[in-house]
Structures are given as C-alpha cells and as structure tokens.
Write a structure and sequence with these properties.
The chain is an alpha/beta fold. The chain contains 17 helices and 16 strands. It is globular. The structure holds zinc ion (ZN). The site of zinc ion (ZN) has 5 residues, from loops.
C-alpha cells in the first residue's frame, strides 16, 4: 500500500509539474513579441532614393572599376601599386562633384587607402563613417579559364556585372560615391560630417589601411560616431522555417581569430628502428585530442541574436523553443551542434588547416608541425584559447605557439537596439523592394570595421545586395558578379541612408 500510495503521489507531482511547465511555455511563447506588421516598403522613402538617374552610365562606371587588378597578395610588397593609383584616378574622374566638394586624402602604409571628408553644416553633431575596401582577393591560379568572363574584364552581360571584386567589395565603394555624387547634384549638404573610408588591404587584415584611417581620425579627435557602416552579410531568402520574406542580416559583432602552430621535435634516424611514436604520430595524436574535445557550446555568447530577433516570425515549434530557453537549451544545443554552420554560432571552432612533416620514406622525421585555426566566440580570448589548447593536448612534447600573427580577440557587440541600428533598418525597409526583415547577426569572419569596434557602440556591417547560395561561393571564388539590379539598388540604399543618418540623435 505504501508503495502504491507513494507511486500515486509521484504521478500527481509529475502531472502538476507538466501542467506548470506547459503553462509557462504557453505564457512565454505568447508574451514573446508578436510578428511585426510593418514589413512593407516604408511610405517615407526619400524622394532622393526614388529620383531617376542615368543608370547605364552608373553601371559602366562600376564595371570599369572591376578592370583594375587591385589584388591583395602576401607579401604586401608584391601588390600592383599602379592598379590602385589607376583606380583612384577612375574614381576622381567618375564622380567630379565628390572631388569638388569633399576633401580627399590618401592614407595608409603605403598611402593607397582613401579618406573622403564631407563636412557637415553643424560641427557639433556626431559624425558618420561609411566604409568599403578597394582591394580584392586573387583569382586562384589555374581557375582563370573557368570564369564565364575574364575576372578583370568588368563585362556587363546577362543582367550582371562580372569580375573579381563585384560583390567584395567594390560595390560598396562605387555605390556610396555614386550616391554622394547624386546627392551633391541635388544640392544636399549633410548637417553632420560624413567620412567615406576605403581601405586598401582588407583582404590582408586591414592593418595598414583601415587601421591607419581609424588612427588618423582618432588623432584628430574624431570619435563618438553616430554610425560606422562597413561591408557585411547581404539579404538572403529561405533563412529559417516559417520565414517567407527576405532577411537582411546586419553584422553587430565579429568572432575573434587565431592560428596556432603545433610543433613536435623528433629524434630522426633510420626508419628500420623506430620509436613507438614518431614526431608525426605524436602530433597527429595532439590534433585528434583537439578534434575530440571541441570547445564547449555557449548559447548566451550572442550567437543566437539572429534567431532570437527572427523568432516571432518563425514556425511555431522554433518560436516555442526560443521563447523557453530555460527548458529547451539542451535540445537547441544538440540541434545547433549537428551542422557546421550553426555549430560555429555557439562555440569557438577548431580547424586543423596545415600539416608538414617528413622528407623521405625511410627517414624518421625530425620535425612535425601543424597549423590549427580557431574562430573565437565572444566571451573567450586569444589567451584563453591558447590555455585550453595546451590543457587539452596535455603533452610536453608538443609546443604550442601563435603562427604568423598574434591573433585577434572577438569584437564587442554593437548596440542593436539603438538609433543607429534603427536608422539602418529603416533605410533597408524603405528601399525594399517589398517586405524585408532585418536581423542582427554575429559574423564568423572579420571586416575592417573591427578597427572601430572598440571606439563606437554603433559599428554595423551590411551589404545591400541579395545573396543566394550560389552567390556566396562566387565571393572569393569563380564567377564573382553582381546583378545590375542589385548595383542600382545599392545606390538607392545609400541615397536613403545618407538622408536618414542626418536625423540620428
Ligand atoms: Zn570584403
């Protein structure tokens, strides 16, 4: 009897618990913000963004910019300086009103980056920086013939402009300059100062370009920016179940980066009398340890900001899970960890990328070395990553040191609820076309914006360009190109944005 009664008691408790849990789940799901009804293009789209302009001429200027091979290759000394200077000249000739009304300086080491200053009428107002970069990644040798149109031809065909740099990132540079030129023709003068900052070495890390520009502004006492906007993710479709409108993703933080070199020193000698493990074996074991012990997931480090922002629009089962994190975190962690794309949102990633050892089949290796690349989740640092790697490998035969550079800590999160984000969001919606959702995201890669991240809470990263699956592969790959429609849209976006930032507090 006692047993039965106790059993009944447990059953009652379980039923009560389930009822309470269900009640809380429903309550939390209902109280999570309802879908935003105002998804359509905004009625306040500025006339400047709607005004007709010579589209063919604008596209031709953009196409011409793709013909200068402003390639960033290591070592930097091997870059084609003449190509950068020729691109500068092309920009000067293309946008005469910009040249006339804005101050243009060459900045950097060497001075191939460009800083334009568009003086505002009220010097007391916080300034804005619109960024982009002039350099492009190389075309992988041997793949030139796979391009539909030669990579530096700037061919306009099949509704697109083809060439290296079309999406990354000459679109930002040319569209901003085109928009400013058009606004000048309309007699616009901003109340706050707007800087146009175009680096020349973003693809090498930006240390001699964007960094030098940020330092120059700092040395002039220019800080407390109302908005800093750099390249970032674009507009994508089919992002999550239940969401049937395009989503504009705005980068509000960047993961950190460090590459570590693991080295094992062996004895050498003849392979006929080997030790139980050669330098190769010891090193391979160390890498296996790292892969078998991935960094722990952290769902609260900011990787879920996008999902949380989109939750009200998502299919109900996701809405329930995201509104009740206290209950569903273990399930969320398992689901997100299953795919590389989503796993990278919630943990520091580990990628062994290089392995060097051995010279001959019958000679024991003296040295074995490997490079492992880590993308660091906010909340961790280069130092904490190195400490954990040493702890996990736990083998004094393996030396761990930073490779090439010292690495970069994750950026702080920008304010994605404040006026700068809202102004960007409004600009995106106002030029549409059609309904679009805007969501903050954590970026897996780095941008030049990192040099402003510690100096302003309003650093945002966005490209007003549609990105489908195929487009992502083209960036840094073969057949990079931008739809003509997307280029013209980018110009309108910047026309709208320049108008909107004037209204920022
Ligand atoms: Zn880029």
């Amino acid at each position: 009897m006692k047993k039965v009664r106790r059993g009944a008691g447990v059953a009652v408790l379980v039923v009560m618990a389930v009822t309470v849990v269900a009640g809380v789940v429903v309550a939390r799901t209902l109280s999570s913000s309802p879908p935003d009804p105002q998804l359509g293009a905004d009625a306040t789209t500025h006339e400047a963004a709607l005004a007709p302009f010579d589209e063919d001429a604008a596209v031709a200027r953009f196409a011409e910019a793709l013909r200068y091979p402003t390639v960033s290759v290591p070592p930097p000394a091997e870059r084609d300086t003449a190509a950068f200077l020729a691109l500068h000249r092309h920009l000067d000739q293309s946008y005469p009103l910009v040249r006339e009304h804005l101050t243009r300086e060459r900045v950097g080491r060497p001075a191939l980056s460009l800083l334009y200053t568009w003086e505002g009428t009220d010097p007391s107002r916080a300034p804005v920086v619109l960024m982009g970069h002039l350099d492009v990644v190389p075309v992988i040798p041997g793949t030139e013939d796979e391009w539909t149109h030669p990579p530096f031809s700037g061919t306009v065909a099949d509704g697109a402009v083809w060439g290296r740099g079309a999406m990354d990132d000459k679109v930002s540079v040319l569209a901003v300059l085109q928009a400013v030129d058009l606004l000048l023709a309309m007699g616009h003068r901003p109340s706050r100062t707007i800087y146009l900052a175009f680096g020349h070495d973003e693809e090498l890390g930006g240390a001699d370009g964007a960094s030098a520009i940020a330092d120059l502004l700092e040395s002039r006492g220019v800080r407390d920016f109302a908005m800093v906007l750099d390249e970032g993710p674009g507009v994508t479709e089919g992002l999550a179940p239940g969401i049937d409108v395009p989503v504009a993703m705005v980068g509000v933080a960047e993961k950190g980066y460090v590459s570590l070199e693991l080295t094992v020193r062996g004895e050498g000698g003849h392979s006929s009398v080997p030790p139980s493990a050669t330098a190769i074996g010891v090193l391979a074991e160390a890498i296996s340890e790292l892969e078998e012990h991935p960094f722990p997931a952290n769902l609260d480090a900011g990787g879920l900001v996008m999902l949380e922002a989109l939750a009200p629009h998502m299919a109900q089962r996701f809405r329930v899970a995201l509104a009740n994190r206290w209950l569903f975190d273990p399930l969320l962690e398992r689901t997100l960890s299953a795919e590389p794309q989503t796993s990278a949102l919630i943990r520091t990633t580990t990628a062994a990328t290089m392995f060097t050892a051995g010279v001959k089949d019958n000679v024991l290796p003296i040295d074995a070395s490997a490079t492992v690349n880590f993308r660091i989740l906010p909340g961790e640092t280069v130092v904490s990553v190195i400490e954990r790697v040493r702890r996990v490998i736990d083998d004094e035969r393996v030396t761990v040191a930073t490779a090439n550079e010292s690495g970069r800590d994750p950026s702080p999160f920008s304010d994605f609820r404040g006026p700068a984000f809202r102004a960007l969001e409004a600009s995106i919606r106002q030029v549409g076309p059609g309904p679009v959702l805007v969501a903050p995201v954590l970026l897996m890669g780095g941008t030049d914006a990192t040099y402003y991240a510690a100096r302003s809470p309003n650093v945002l990263r966005f490209l007003p360009v549609r990105m489908t699956d195929g487009d992502l592969v083209r960036v840094h790959g073969t057949d990079e190109r931008l739809r003509v429609e997307d280029y013209l849209h980018s110009v309108r976006f910047f026309l709208q944005l320049v108008k909107n930032v004037d209204a920022l507090p």
